[in-house]
Design brief:
- Keywords: Cytoplasm, Decarboxylase, Lyase, Polyamine biosynthesis, Pyridoxal phosphate.
- It is found in: Cytoplasm.
- By secondary structure, the protein is α/β, with parallel strands linked by helices.
- 30% of the residues lie in helices and 21% in strands.
- The strands form 2 sheets. Strands 1, 10, 11, 12, 13, 14, 15, 16 and 17 form a 9-stranded mixed sheet that branches.
- Helix 2 crosses helix 3 and helix 7 packs parallel to helix 8.
- The two termini are 36 Å apart.
Length: 419
């Protein structure tokens, strides 16, 4: 990993909604006398960017109703903000369903999109009236028959997601052959309502041709399903979208839907399960530099050659909110936020040339807890300085631990750049 940072702003300027919130919070901390933990890492969330992402979705894919994948970031303000905009929800567990229902959101706005479900969770879904789920194998159909026979079922197809940042079809999804030869006939025998097809092209998908192929496969399953007498009218195109590539991926969705589902009389409802797309850019993580040591000569000659001059230790890491490095294959980029009481926030990834090479480590006692083997920062940072990491809304706070006694989920300060 290789990062740059260069301060580009006069410390006295207005830093925008996120920058001002970061600055106000850090200025509030008495770093010499504060209580233990008062200087813990924290997020600033710009709800305006969540609203903007939803707006982009509705402009580019007005025919596809998004169901935000709660697993991506379970923050209740994200859920309520999206709910108020008309977004629906994808939940994978009892707790996720509860977190949505708790906000007064109706159960018919939820898809229980986990093809392998715990029996008691299926019974729970029935009691709270969650009536749409995904299934990719015959055992699951038997479970649905036993515990929630009226629930609408989407057959989850596997996709070609080899180039995705996080593959999902290694774990979930069936082939078209299995769908038509096994699942549909069994559902017919059991009298279960197959109402459509779902797929997911992998989180952080890169090859949008797989969307085309998946929609084509879905068409085949719809055709056979119709022949068998099923009233199939929902196509769930899953997640895998990112703001940065949405022009391309959404164009592929539009083209594929027009080609394979052009018939308005069929009245197919298109839905999706975007996670990363809605929240990734909205969260910035601020971390405190808690320790620093010169690079010990005995163990890192490669690092010395690469220009790493010191190791810095920050108060968040791969066991905390930077777990996305391990679980989500992300490469968060560090920037200097404060140095010697001056504040530097340029608000984006437009980092110029830095000249101070560091390896960055988390606070736990585990050697795995490495945030970056090499980051090039704009200053020779000291203990007491702060760093920030932009674009950390997706698959971060959702999977933290409190390993070694460090706080699991960082506090969040909310701003709204649209107000
Ligand atoms: N739907 C399902 C079933 C998933 O497993 C995931 C992610 O793992 C998502 C939606 C969200 O995917 P993304 O965040 O890539 O949009």
């Amino acid at each position: 990993m290789y990062c740059f940072d260069a301060p580009q702003q006069n410390p006295n300027t207005n830093h925008g909604f996120v920058g001002n919130a970061l600055k106000a919070k850090i200025n509030d901390i008495d770093h010499i006398n504060c209580e233990a933990g008062d200087e813990d890492s924290f997020f600033v969330c710009d709800l305006g960017l969540v609203k903007r992402a939803h707006q982009i979705w509705t402009e580019m894919l007005p025919m596809v109703q998004p169901h935000y994948a709660v697993k991506c970031n379970t923050d209740s303000r994200i859920i309520s903000t999206l709910a108020n905009l008309g977004c629906n929800f994808d939940c994978a567990s009892k707790a996720e369903i509860e977190s949505v229902l708790l906000q007064g959101i109706s159960a018919n706005r939820i898809v229980y999109a986990n093809p392998c479900k715990t029996n008691s969770f299926i019974r729970f879904a029935k009691t709270v009236d969650v009536n749409l789920t995904t299934v990719d194998n015959c055992n699951e159909l038997h479970k649905m028959k036993q515990f929630h026979p009226e629930c609408g079922i989407l057959i989850r197809l596997a996709t070609d997601d080899e180039s995705a940042q996080c593959r999902l079809s290694t774990k979930f999804g069936c082939t078209v052959e299995s769908a038509v030869d096994e699942l549909l006939p069994l559902a017919q025998e059991l009298g279960l309502p197959i109402v459509g097809v779902a797929f997911h092209v992998g989180s952080g998908a890169k090859d949008f041709g797989s969307i085309y192929k998946a929609v084509q496969d879905a068409r085949m399953v719809f055709d056979i399903g119709h022949q068998l007498g099923f009233k199939m009218n929902i196509l769930d195109i899953g997640g895998g979208f990112e703001v940065e590539t949405f022009e391309e991926s959404s164009a592929m969705v539009r083209m594929s839907l027009e080609k394979f589902f052009p018939n308005e009389n069929e009245q197919v409802k298109f839905i999706a399960e975007p996670g990363r797309f809605m929240v990734s850019n909205a969260f910035t993580l601020a971390t405190h530099v808690i320790a620093k040591r010169d690079l010990p000569r005995h163990f890192v000659t490669d690092d010395i050659e690469n220009g790493v001059k010191a190791m810095i230790y920050i108060n968040d890491g791969v066991y905390g909110n930077l777990n996305c490095i391990l679980f989500d294959h992300q490469h968060p980029i560090a920037h200097v936020l404060t140095h010697r009481d001056n504040f530097y926030y340029n608000g984006n990834d437009a980092h110029g040339k830095g000249k101070h090479g560091f390896s960055i480590w988390g606070p736990t006692c585990d050697g795995l807890d490495c945030v970056s083997v090499r980051s090039e920062l704009g200053f020779d940072v000291d203990v007491g300085d702060w760093l920030y990491f932009p674009n950390l809304g997706a698959y971060t706070s959702a999977a933290t631990t409190s390993f070694n006694g460090f706080k699991a989920v960082a506090d969040v300060i909310y701003v709204d750049s649209t107000l």
